[in-house]
Amino acid sequence: MSLVVAITGGIASGKTTVANLFHQHFGIHLVDADVVARQVVEPGTQGLTQIVEHFGRSILNPDGTLDRAALRKKIFSNSQDKEWINNLLHPLIRQEMQHQLQLSTSPYSLLVVPLLVENDLQHMANRVLVVDVSEQTQINRTMTRDRVPESQVRSILKAQAEREARLAHADDVINNDAEGAQLLSQITKLHQKYLALCSENR
Q: What is the pLDDT of residues 179-190, one digit of tens each?
């Protein structure tokens, strides 16, 4: 398997934007934990079958897909159900991420994991790239994007790893307070660095 770089960052830091720029400009293979989390509960999967066995068919939409809102409601009010769902899904997600990384044909791969530090998944990558922004930028962007009040954004921030804790795990950092050309120039430098590391590891 090629070099794996994990991308992480707090809410509205621009992780997806950064990952997509690596992909669009340099053809780097992406594995996104949020996408994988949806794939492991698609109709016909072991994940969805077990969820239905545990919670009953009321957890499904009329078309047979998982009713995420209903599931969130159930686990929000019941810590045992929340633990059960985490114990079921986390290993399935990790396994599928590994599988998708093994299929990569680019010189290195990017693993996009929002809660990398919180879920202690640093071991899945050779390097950790933190997309960093100021807390005020996170608040402003989230309020604009999700149309939610500042108090709600602050409670989400409290639930995530603190910025300092995330940065303590970083091998590389992209500052994303400023976007556009400045962002791409940081990505280009890192791309060249990762290619050099791939050559060294051959």
A: 667 889 999 999
Residue range 73-85, pLDDT digits in tens? 888 888 899 999 9
- Known binding residue 65? Answer is no
Please give the order of strands across the beta sheet that includes 172-175. Answer: 29-32, 108-112, 3-8, 127-132, 172-175
* pLDDT at position 57 over 90: yes
Instruction: Judge whether 193 is annotated as a binding position.
Output: no
Residue 178 marked ligand-binding: no
**Cα–Cα distance between 175 and 116 in angstroms, integer?**
18
**33 among the known binding-site residues?**
no
109 is in an annotated binding site: no
Q: Degrees (nearest 5) of the Cα angle 66, 72, 77?
A: 140
H and E: helices and strands count for the chain: 9, 5
Where residue 173 falls among pLDDT bands split at 50, 70, 90? very high
Beta bridge partner(s), residue 30: 110
Q: Is 106 part of any known ligand binding site? A: no
Q: Structural domains in the chain?
A: 1-28+106-202 (3.40.50.300), 35-104 (no CATH)
